[in-house]
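worker-03 picked up job from queue 'complexes'. Input manifest follows; four sequence lines, order preserved.
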Amino acid sequence: MNAVELSGKLAAIASPHRMRIIAMLQGEPLHVSELARRMEMSRALLYMHLSKLEDAGFVTGHLELSDDGKALKLFEVLPFVLNIDPAMIVNAISQQESE
Amino acid sequence: MNAVELSGKLAAIASPHRMRIIAMLQGEPLHVSELARRMEMSRALLYMHLSKLEDAGFVTGHLELSDDGKALKLFEVLPFVLNIDPAMIVNAISQQESE
DNA sequence: CCGACCTGTAATGTTTTTATTACAGGTGCA
DNA sequence: TGCACCTGTAATAAAAACATTACAGGTCGG
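worker-03 finished. Artifact:
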């Protein structure tokens, strides 16, 4: 992982709102409207945060049909681990590309 | 470490410029002007980035006298480790305060 | 005294991020 | 048909981050 990719991922979690989203989804997938209620946040804003988390690979969402036939967009946390220390920063900077 | 502190630290490293600063200082403390030359960056801008890194506890700087008596502000990397995964995010969110 | 270094920051402009509001459209059910 | 849900996004405003320029002041050596 190069420096740009790494900083992108770090920026994606470096937000109290987004960390709270991860904490709420952890172990309990929720659909957008329900999550918006629990976060006490507008859906539009929540979508913005969810997009950043999804782009960075921390969460994933998919449409699903509820029991009564309504479409729900369920989001869940993807497993991830990032060990940040000086050596891995040096390593990221020295990477020109590659995943 | 609570969510606000953690997001502050993550935001501080979530920048290619600042990651590069850490990489350059790692193992070789440098004074501001010299680092500015190697980074090809203005001192004013470098100070802004260094302040963020110092506030977050990733680097530290102190004045020191060179051999010919001039004052130099030497910066060096402080050891740090951050293991980021869903569980530690949940933990950070559940912390109300404490260091 | 002057030139070549160094530190430190204020003021300003630009860009990006964050947040709000408003809209369009869908399903199920009484 | 009207109500209560849901998804999705465009347009806009407000706030924060980033970057540049310009200045003030210090030490040293020729």
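worker-03 released lock.
The first helix of chain B runs from residue 3 to 13.
The first strand of chain B starts at residue 30 and ends at 31.
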